[in-house]
Amino acid sequence: MIRILIVEDEPLIAKDLEYAVQDLGYSISASCRNSRQALEALQREVPDLIICDIHLHNDDWDGIRLAQEIRLRYDIPLIFLTALSDAETIRRAAQTQPQAYLTKPFDERTLYAAIELAIVRFASPEQASASPAEAPPPFIAGSFFVKDKKRLVKIKAEDIQWIKADGAYSLLAANQQQYLLSVHLGAIESSLGAFSFARVHRSYLVNVQHIEAIEDDLIFIGKERIPIGKSFREDFYSRIRQL
Asked: Is the separation of the CB atoms in 49 and 4 below 8 Å?
């Protein structure tokens, strides 16, 4: 499970962010109100992602100065949380090379998009230098190759039943087989955009053509029982009604 450190000095916004992060299925390593607390929290536990407000009031450092210090000590993806800022602030923020921005007020869908984008962007330098089998699978006429032990297996997009996030990896089910892919689910979702796939949960992407039944916000595909996340429920049900 992805662990997130939150740095936000406004208690109400911090609470909203904590609830939203947990509702989306992520965990919180710590929630801090200033730069000192954030650095102490990082010494105790290094998270997978940081969401940091640019403007930390009543603090010696703002979020940008804190981000600069974090960049010197740790290699962690960073999302800046901000209301509208002046051009100079944005210029300073950009120099820290954040993986994403989240604008106040936020909702769960924009929060989810920012987190997934940050994770994919942070992983992309490694993916760019990885071997072809470790990079996002390339599509060739509606098919792509996945690594299965020492072989590359060709899989048609239409044969994929579901794909499940497994940390930085993804588990793909197709043709009564399952394949572990060394690529994040968000990158696969981008590749499959033109096909009949729907994100139904932060950890699941399904091929709607393979859905056998839906009951109590559970999707049945073969032996797999796939939950429909509340943040994805409305879009999913709207889509299957159209189909």
From this structure: yes
HSE-up of residue 197 (Cα within 13 Å, Cβ side): 24
Q: Which residue has the tokens 């098919």?
A: 143
Instruction: Give residue for tokens 């499940």.
Output: 164
Fold annotation for 139-242 = OB fold (Dihydrolipoamide Acetyltransferase, E2P) (2.40.50)
- Residues 237 and 242: their CA atoms lie apart, in Å, by 9
Cα–Cα–Cα angle for 127, 125, 49, nearest 5°? 100
For the chain, the structural domain boundaries read 3-126, 139-242
* Residues sharing a CB contact under 8 Å with residue 236, sequence separation 6 or more, in sequence order: 198, 200, 228
pTM for the model: 0.57
State the Cα–Cα distance between residues 114 and 205, nearest whole angstrom: 18
pLDDT tens digits, 102-117? 888 888 878 888 888 8
Q: Do residues 29 and 120 lie in contact, with contact meaning Cβ atoms separated by under 8 Å?
A: no
Asked if the 3-126 domain carries CATH number 3.40.50.2300, the reply is yes
Please name the residue ranges forming H helices in 85-148: 87-95, 108-129
